[in-house]
Every structure is written in structure tokens, then in C-alpha cells.
Amino acid sequence: MEITFIGATRTVTGSMHLFEYKRQKFLIECGLYQGHRAESERINRTFPFKPREVRCVILSHAHLDHSGNLPTLVKKNFKGDIYCTPATGDIAELLLLDSAHLHEHDIAYFNKKQKKAGLPTKEPLYTVSDAEEAIRYFRSINYHNQFEPVEDVFVTFYDAGHILGSAQILIEFDGKRVLFSGDLGRKNMPIIKDPEIIRDIDYLILESTYGNRIHSSVEQMTDELKSIVIEGREKKSKIIIPAFAVERTQVLITMLKQLYEDGVLNDIPIYVDSPLATSVTEVFVRHPECFDKETYSRFIKEEPFDFPGITYIKDQERSKELNHKSGPMIIISASGMCEGGRVLHHLIHSIESENNIIILTGFQASGTLGRKLLDGYKEVFIFDTKFTVRAKVYFMAGLSAHADSNDLVEFVDSIKNSRLKKVYLIHGEITEAVALKDKIQALGIPVEIPECMARVEL
Q: Which of 29, 195, 269, 300 could disulfide-link to 15, CB 3.0 to 4.6 Å?
């Protein structure tokens, strides 16, 4: 088996890895690269292989940095199956259609400006019809059900505990066992189950997003959110929370529901202003088999994502009305890295007031607006207009759905045995990956951090 590490190598975006066995090629992941626009454009529009030669794609989960370039792959003559869990398929369908709509909208805006300036126009990376075509190739496989995506290669999905439907991918061939962790989740997080432990592994391909960081506990995160909300009430703030539509929004809702039941939120309206997040939440309700015991028990008795004071907004006009309302209020809106979607309009109307609050709730890739806010930029551009950042910015890193350094080391230690020959670290900026490498090597296991296009033979 040969593996070429293509995307999410020494970075956390654009996950893509090409496997080849007996001249049969298959991909694990086909993600969008997010970052500096010119670089993203170049990477996302080209593949370092011929898509028509790829037999199939195997997805660990639905996040766009893992699934978001599937329409481009299909557009360039890929005709194989795309394997994933049922929940991943349902969520990826929503994300891909939404992504395609944004590509069409953004390129229309760009082309309008180009035409006025007499400059060349562009085609979108992909269209809604391209996304619809890609969705036709999805094939759902349940956890623990072994399948044979190419001849003599056997694959099984195990729960990764990252987002609804996320999977670790066990690949077996010639008596060897390779585990691709995907994005690994944390123990004791709300809603979904903990990551499963799979033993007797020969090679581990492991994410390293937070290879050098320790997250707060759920209780600490809830207390932190409570203190910010109380501050926002006193200042009559608009509390803007850019949040990923999948998992992050739903976790926030469960935390806010707890604060409501504790009497903290009775006078503060909450708006989930994201058609995508609203639709994804509906998918969560359709897949209670992915819930942990606590959430499932609550699901039997009541709707876990609904309570008085919370309003889900799909209509664009109702979204615009929020910009003219006074605080205190909480607005949860996508995207989580502030790179598109309705949250940008809410930031435009709130970022220059020192009374308002912005809560960043997850990893912010280099070059994104979210990263600039996290890094303390005093001025930022939104839709080519400069804004002064006067709103108070908080970073609740503990809300991440990714395993932290302790989780990752404990995971490796749990599966460690005489068979484990090497760990390959992907999906992490180099500083995080190097720190994790040192910790894993202390367990006596060789570790490699592949560069982009590195090729290894197992």
C-alpha cells in the first residue's frame, strides 16, 4: 500500500490523501483548502492526480475541509462511489449545497466588479448542480460494517466522537491494519459518544490540530459562557458568536439551554441565524443513534435543541431585522471562521461598538477574518470595507470538538502495542504537530510528520 499525503499536511485544512494498492487508487477525504484567497484558488481548482483514475472516496466526516471539494472532483470526471456513514451523508449534502450556493454568490459579486473595471471574469469553483451531481455518488455504510471499496482492501468505520457521524477509518490489507483517525473528538462532550478505541494497529495516521494545547472541561466552558452572558446583559451587548453549523452550534445550544434552565438567560433572546445550522440541527434530530446516553435519554422525553427564548431564523429579511434590534441578545451565526455567511453582516453592524462582544468558538485558520480577530487586529476588512475592531473579543478554545494534547496522547497510549510501527501526524500546524510528536515518541513509538506530496509505502 502506498500513501501520498496531499492536503492537511503541516496545516489543518484541505484534507486529502491518495492511497494506491495493486494499481487501484482511492482517496480518503477531498476537502476544501481555506486560507489566503489566491492560494486557495490554486489548490482547490487543481488535483495532483487524474480524478478519473480514482476508484472511490472514503469520508471520515462532513466538515468542508474534509468533504468540500468533492463537487470539483466529480466535475473533473471522477465517477466512483463516495463512502461515509449515514449521518455524514445527510450533513455533507447540506454543507455541499450551501458551499456551492456561496461559491456562485461570491463569484457573481466578483465578476460584477471585474466587468465594471474591464477585467477578466471567473467561473465559480463549482455550482449547485455540480454539488447535486456529487451527492448522487454517496453510499452510506453503518459503523462496524466492513466493506470492500477496492479489491482486497477492507474498510470499517468506527465512531470518532468529533461530530455527528464522524468516523475513524480502519483499512485492512495483506494482514496489515492501518487506522486513519479522521478528526478525533473529546471524551465527555455533550450530545455524541466518545471516540472508540481500536487495537492491534500496525500504522496510525493521526490528526494533531491541538497537539500542544489543553482544553477546558465542559463545566469550565459553561461557567465561562455564563460570565460572558452576564457581562453582555450588563452592557446591553449584542453577543455575536460565529459558529460552525455542524456540532459547534448544537453544543452551544445545549449549553445555553442549561443556562436558561438555571435562570441566567430568561431575559436575553437567542437567535440561531443560519439556515444551514437550522437544517443541520434537524439532521441531528433524525440521528439519535449517534447520541450519547445522556442526550438520548433527554431526546426520548423532550426536544434537546429547543427551549423558550431561542429562535431559529431561515428567512433573510428576519435576519436583517436583527441588525436594527438593541441588545442584550445572543446571535449564533455561520461561518465559524468568519469567512462567509450571515455572520459577516452581523459583524459589520456590531464590530465597531465597544459595548458588543464577539465569541470565537473554535480553530481559526491562518488568513481568515476569524484568525485576525483572534490575533488582536485593530482593523479588519469585511467585503472590502475597513472596520475598526472595538467590540470585545473572547476565545472559547475549550468548545473545540477536537481532541486536545492529553486526549491524543492517551488515545495513542490506549492502542499502543508491539504491532504499532509508526504514527503519521497530519491535520495540524507544524508547531502543534512537533509538540505532539515529542510526546508520542516518549511512549517509544516512531513518529513522522509528512510534508505535502510525501509518499510512503506500508
A: 29
